[in-house]
Amino acid sequence: MSGPATRSLELPGGRRARVWEQGSGPTLGYLGGLVGLPRWPDFLERLSVKHRVVAPSLPGSFGAEHFRELDDVADWVSATLDLLEAAELVGANIVGASLGATLAAEVAAFANASVGRLVLIAPFGLFDSEDPVRDLWAVQKREWNALVSSEPENLAAFLSPPGAVEELEWEIQRTRSQEASARLLWPTGDLGIAKRLHRIQAPTLLLWGELDQVVPASYAGRFARGIGDNAKIQLIDGAGHTAELDRPQQVAQAIADFLD
Fold it and tell me: Rounded distance, CA 63 to CA 105, Å?
């Protein structure tokens, strides 16, 4: 495979964002996780066999630099809606992972006609002090991969500098991505979404790595209870917070089964 096609989106305020696209069939939007999309992942490769997968870069992640004007949940939801509109994903089925799942859930709650079916892979947004979400921004860099992924060596390879990008430039981009996610989620990831989950009308699949050390798998039940009867849960055996990277075949199959 030659890899996904690349184009640039023009957004309000002079912002721009990279979008990757691959495959043919029903459109499926993807909003990436905390690590963004430095390269095309295997699970999207699998999904693109039967879907037109469209993956725009979230603010601050690889391919979209502007984010410091985003101060609160409303700003992030507005920016995500701008992104979905520019990528022609409004009303499409949407998959989100981690940060991207958080924003997909918020968008579906605030503007429930903006998504078709919804797949949320380990979103943030809730917090229970008896079963707390991990503060990732207090974790030493050397510990980060093993905390986030059940396959830390694979994650390290996924996060290595792509193509001709120099290592120093790449580290700056990674730091920018972490800063962007921290602006929304630090320290506990509690966005008060518990008060809005009932507004999500889309059929919703909650996918969670059973070994998630960041947002414990018990939060799947919390989200499902908040959303209601249109939500279902599927745990991914042997996967951590980055379930889509740890177990790409299982995650892609679960998504495909849900969308069929």
Answer: 22
> Following DSSP, what letter does each residue of 190-213 receive, concatenated?
B-SGGGTGGG--S-EEEEEETT-S
pTM attached to this predicted model: 0.96
DSSP 8-class letter at 134: P
- CA–CA distance, 13 with 11 (Å, rounded to integer): 6
For the chain, the structural domain boundaries read 5-259
Q: Is the pLDDT of residue 1 over 60?
A: no
Contact yes or no for 76/184 (Cβ under 8 A): yes
Residues in the chain: 260
For domain 5-259, the CATH class is alpha beta
List, in sequence order, every residue forming a beta bridge with 9; answer none if it has no partner: 17
pLDDT at 2: 72
pLDDT per residue over 155-201, tens digit each?
999 999 887 788 888 888 888 889 999 999 999 999 999 999 999 99
Query: Strand, coil or helix: what is 18?
Result: strand
Give SS3 for 3. coil
Handedness of CA 106, 176, 70, 134 (dihedral sign): positive
CA distances from 178 to 38, 45, 127 (A): 13, 25, 20
User: Measured over all CA atoms, what is the biggest interatomic distance in the chain, rounded to whole angstroms?
Assistant: 48
The per-residue pLDDT for range 20-71, each reduced to its tens digit, is 999 999 999 999 999 889 999 999 999 999 999 999 999 989 888 778 889 9
Rounded Cα–Cα distance for residues 178 and 137 (Å): 8
End-to-end C-alpha distance for the chain, whole angstroms: 25
Backbone CA torsion sign across 138, 143, 149, 154: positive
